[in-house]
Model the fold of this input.
Amino acid sequence: MRTLWRWIAIFALFGISLFFVAPRRVATAAPQAPVPAKLVSPPSADPSLDIPSTTTAVNASAPMSQRVVHYEIDAKYDASKHTVDAAEILTYHNLTGHSLDHFPFHLYQNAFQPNSTWVREAKIQGSRDIGYEKWDPKEFGSEEIKSVEVVGQGDATANLQFISPDDNNKDDKTVVDLHLSKPIPAGAFVQFKIAFQTKFPETQARSGWKRDFLLGGQWFPKVGVWWNGAWNCHQYHATTEFFADFGVYDVNLTVPQYEVIGASGIQVSSINNADGTKTVTYHGDDIHDFAWTVSPRYKVKESTYQAQMGPVQLRFLMQPAHWNQVERHERITRETLDHFEKWYGPYPYKTLTVVDPEPDSAAGGMEYPTFITGDSSWLLPNGLYFIELVVEHEFGHQYWYGMVATNEFEDAWLDEGINSYTEVKVMDDILGKDTSILNIAGIHFGEREEQRLSYVSVADRDPMAQKAYDYYNLNSYGGATYGKTASVLLTLENIVGQDTMAQAMHTYFMRYRFTHPTKEDFLKTIEEVSGKDLRWYFNQAIYGSQVLDYEVLNANSFPVNWYEDRDKEDRNKKDKDDTVYQSYVSVHRKGDFIMPVNVEITFDSGEKVREPWDGQSRWNRFSYQKKAKVVSAEIDPDHSIYFDRDNFNNSRGVEPKSKPTNKLSTYWLFITQWLGQAMAWWAV
Amino acid sequence: MANLLSSGFTKVAQNKRYIFWFWVLNLTLAEFGTAAFRRGAHAILDRSLYADRLVESFDLGVLIELISKPEFGTLKSMAYPSLYFGFMFFLTTSVVLPGIFTGYASTYRLPREEFFRACGRNLWRFIRILITAGVIMGVLAALLFAANDAIAKKAEESTNEKLPFELQVIGLAVIFLTMATLRVWFDLAEVDTVLNDQRAVRKAIAEAFRHTLRSLVRLLASYVVVTIIAAVVLLAGLWIWMKFVAPENVFGAFVVAQITLLLLLVPRFWQRGIAVSYWQERMLIPFAANVITKPVPVPVGAPVELPTPEAPPPLSTLPIEPPPS
Done:
């Protein structure tokens, strides 16, 4: 999830070197985790129940995931009311090893009600979606289960009970618990027949309608995940996303015939009905969610990408006013696919739908399995890479969320953060370090700086490893989850080595794809591949909220024999080469994050001295006696630390130089003068 | 229109010194307005090697980091002094404009005393005109901008994504033309007040209004052409700055910026020259000697010939009157 300036030789060389290094990163294939074999299940109540082993939507001959759920949904969309009336059949395979007597379901669209936890938190913590503040009651979103039948146990509608496991908000109806009259034994299957109606709000949190557009996300009752020995079914929070089990989706969507439709998975059929509607059927394998979109005005481009496991149909649903940007969308999609396949592992699905959502909708920058939304405007010039940034980011989620399906409620940094890290890597490689967001008229801005800046403003608020709904506010969530994770992993890359980090990421993906790994699974993979104990780093950077801020306090020199010449008028005439100077450099650890660093001291003779400092003490002083004076001192001269809170104080020149200030002041002066002239132009 | 443009430009060309002094004033006041920004930047950037990234190129990330540092101060604390000194420039312009109009109407190089005498005589008259213009322009601009926003907001309901933008552009063009018309009106009122020595400002405003309506197309077209030239000058200056000035060439950036700003002063003075030319052409009251001719030196001791009642004395020889109550 994500919406959101000139080349200089050294950065170009860095980009080129990355390009040549990149192919080598996948030279060694990491061991693939075997797909868990289906548990031998005891006979279920209904032996005819099963989860299909279809592979029509993936380029594989066998299922790639442990399939827990099979959703069959027959849905009819009323475009005038923005409602969906649907019948859902959920077949659940109890692989928990426990007998289950209740099943929690997510009813996400109930979040868009005035007293919901989502709205309450949005009002307290801030939200990028504030449309709800202007809604009439009739515009609220809702998701209502009309009836539910447990096959073999009869109607269970009366057994539904709203629960609020996270905050006890009795008005929150985003989780409903269904108690069964008879428990489902371990290994057995159970089938639920659910009739429900979903009413979409005007787009909130990347779901809903805008004008005649709809993004159908989180729109059907979805069962929780049995994880770490318990049901994991969190309420919908203002900052949280989702978590679900892998399985198979067969979805019939009946929509007006004039609509152009796109959805997760592959399109199986499309039949026109007599009532002016059409029923389009989609099938998805090894996915854990299903999203769809309609708009009568999409312009469609289709092409094929040859992935490692087989061809992938790329489908771009574009706004008419953005049709001239379809090439930008396609180029970044293909280049991102290239990079991910080369660096992390194969993309196994047969389709990828890239949606350019309705302008001004809160539907831009969202990921669903095989289905992503970009975010664009017809005014975006070349050189401003918002299209590329969003499409790359959302595609990255096909790996970090889609396949490596971590718990977004509890460890958002594992999907958003790792995805932000790979976003920096891919965008830097494609568009250049320091120019991957903006590169216009000599003004440039790069991905890694953007990530770092989003973190430093909230550096001492929250740790990365924290439930997504426990952050101080939206900025803190964003700064720690996206920005800090990307910066921490970029720094980690310089600790373990770039090739090692690349290998670790590849191993992590291949080992944990189609599973629900934890943070320790990720951290241990890096330690295992690097062969290093990195707990000192993880404890501070990931589990802690320590702030890293090193500064050069002082750097100076004075003649050793200063007292000899102090009264002589001709002391300046003394041969400078003979003067021995006492130089000192004082460095200071302002923050509470302890990390070994190098300090580079430059002398006026051109000599550079590098001193390691373990950072354990609060400050350290380096002293020298040389026939040269110190010119400058710099902490972390290789710029390998990406989350230092203040980069300005990492270095200090002995002699002040005013050129940077003069340059900025010239710009500011120009603006001030122009402002005065503009005022005088119109007012008198 | 061409006649107005050329005669207006001739007046500007014959009085280039006004533009030079206005540029000096503009630069001086802006220097004061920039002091807070400069002080904040010096404290952080002068000894940091990281600041070199701002010199070698324009790294927006470094700039954002600088602006977000609490030690630098808030952007508001930087912007307010700039706004204050921008306002000072506007006020100073208001005070010296009567001298400029007198200079433009003069056939000789206006002595400093006459320049400032004109400024002094018309100070309170100009304040009244400014207030009147401010109220009328302010109310009209507020209404037009509100209407423009309402139209754009309504257009957002359309499925045509470009429609709100296109309507906004059309709306802004209408607002520009309306404001330019008002500017023509009040420029003529200011010229009439000064050159006709009009103590009753309301009469000057009414007379200017009649002439604005009478010659609207000609006057407005002249003003629009000059505004377009100003826009071209600004864009050309920025283009030259970006294209030919190396990022580390701070002095070069300063020179290009100042030349651009100096040239940007010309168009507005040109418009005022057009207003004076029009006044001389169409609004001149025959019995009020508008053309200020160089006074003939009178021999010392020679009897002074008083002007005949039919022909009032030249404006430059009129006694200084107390400001109207």
Q: What stands out?
A: The first helix of chain A runs from residue 9 to 21.
